[in-house]
Design goal:
single chain; alpha/beta; Rossmann fold; six-stranded parallel sheet; 18 helices; 14 strands; globular; binds uridine-5'-diphosphate-xylopyranose
């Protein structure tokens, strides 16, 4: 089948290459010529394990272009553009609206337009009214991919969700998308068909649940910090109950990235618009708990060092999670920036995030207080304190005695509870975890 994918950012690029892997001929369309050029050459414009190889393996079935007209050849059109956060917290639909409007002249009767972007509930119903007059059908098929395992999440998802129109066209849309995903469905992947509103809500509900789970354990960390309890042992113990489960119960400096923070805020904004803000008022607490974890690190350093001005602090980690180069709403970067604002001399190190962070620091004019390096050993030299803010494996594997030998003072703040605390203490460090000592 010939497929177009509109928007070749993280989601769209991975989706396009994965559809080619399933055997389809794919045309990826994006307004950014630099990104398109890179993808056309088989070079990933972001960090995602295995993605270069997937692009190159399927190069014969993949075309990337800035020309929307190329989508005319396709029968199924995926819309995978971004929905960033607006100033008021709601989702900004500019790109989704533009993608649909620009696509419409090129779709023909019986084509399928499949929305993948995360949108406020009610969007698909509205867009359907624009698509239907062409004779094409709109459906919504949210994605749940995680950065770092995006290819596996696309080709072997936990489930497929189809949001379809209520009339007969819903059956046609389902049959056509089943054909596209035949290779995935053959692996007995659960496929759930529902109305537009439910499909839209599935995505934001899933992300809200995950965010709530993380903030729940971080709230327990706050209690543990005052009572002397150990939040990791607490998470292990409650996590054995299969109704609770241990995953997403790692306390630390909280969640960040391009999805969870913006999706919960967008969901709250939409509920308020609908006059049912009370239903989601708890998500504001989830957000607050999450942001409090970032300032907790700064407080711990103040407690330990007395004052921050003039102290050298090494921050290991800049990305919002390991195996990614994504610094969007990264707790690690936020902490490094607030330490620098408090007068500390901050050196932040990250194997992948250093590059986007350096560009950002230059853009906002923070070069003076805040330096960035790919080399975490260099960052630790003569530091008065070390903050571990992203749980990269290379950081966890470091020998505490060697690191202690490089630093001016042996203080470590384990923002991800990812270090062997006993080993660091044995090497003479004052160890401060998040909700554990
Ligand atoms: C998330 C969802 O998992 C995915 O299904 C959705 O499609 C997009 O948003 P992603 O943003 O890639 O994916 O990151 P994820 O692995 O979910 O982690 C989000 C954040 O939560 C990270 O900052 C991570 O460090 C943090 N986190 C995760 C914790 O603080 N504790 C945990 O136990 C788990």
């Amino acid at each position: 089948m010939i497929i177009s994918v509109l928007g070749c950012g993280y989601l769209g690029a991975v989706h396009a290459a994965s559809m080619a892997e399933l055997g389809h001929e794919v045309i990826g369309v994006d307004v950014d010529p630099v990104r398109i050029d890179s993808l056309q050459k088989g070079i990933t414009p972001f960090h995602e394990p295995g993605f270069d190889a997937l692009l190159q393996k399927n190069a014969a079935r993949l075309t990337f272009t800035t020309d929307m007209g190329a989508a005319a050849e396709a029968t199924v059109h995926f819309v995978a553009v971004g929905t960033p956060q607006s100033a008021d917290g709601s989702a900004d639909l500019t790109f989704v609206n533009a993608a649909i409007e620009n696509l419409i002249p090129y779709v023909t009767a019986r084509d399928l337009v499949v929305g993948k972007s995360t949108v406020p509930v009610g969007t698909a119903e509205r867009l359907s009214k624009l698509v239907t007059p062409t004779g094409a059908i709109l459906m919504w098929n949210p994605e749940f991919l995680r950065e770092g395992s995006a290819i596996e999440d696309t080709l072997a998802p936990d489930r497929l969700v189809y949001g379809v129109p209520g009339d007969d066209s819903g059956h046609m849309a389902t049959a056509l998308l089943d054909e596209v995903y035949a290779g995935i469905l053959a692996k007995d992947t659960p496929r759930l068909v529902m109305n537009f509103a439910t499909a839209e809500l599935v995505k934001v509900a899933a992300n809200s649940f995950l965010a709530t789970k993380i903030s729940f354990i971080n709230a327990m960390a706050e209690i543990a910090e005052v009572t002397g309890a150990n939040v990791t042992q607490l998470a292990d113990a409650i996590g054995y109950d299969p109704r609770i489960g241990r995953r997403f119960l790692n306390a630390g400096i909280g969640f960040g990235g391009g999805c969870l923070p913006k999706d919960i805020r967008g969901f709250v904004a939409r509920a308020e618009e609908l006059g049912i803000g009370d239903a989601l008022s708890f998500l504001k607490d989830v957000d607050d708990i999450n942001l409090r974890r970032r300032s907790r690190v700064v407080d711990v350093l103040r407690e330990e060092l007395g004052f921050l001005k003039g102290k050298k602090v090494a921050v290991w980690g800049i990305t919002f999670k390991p195996d990614s180069d994504d610094i969007r709403d990264s707790p690690a970067l936020d902490i490094a920036e607030s330490l620098a604002r408090s007068g500390a001399a901050v050196v932040a190190a990250d194997p992948e995030g250093w590059k986007p962070a350096e560009e950002r620091v230059k853009r906002v004019g923070e070069e003076e207080a805040f330096s960035i390096t790919p080399d975490h050993i260099e960052a630790a030299l003569n530091a008065d304190a070390l903050v571990v803010a992203t749980e990269w494996k290379v950081f966890q594997e470091e020998d505490p005695a060697t690191i202690g030998g490089l630093m001016a003072d042996k203080l470590v703040v384990d923002g991800r509870n990812c270090l062997d605390s006993e080993a660091w203490k044995a090497a003479g460090f004052r160890y401060r975890g998040m909700g554990r000592s």
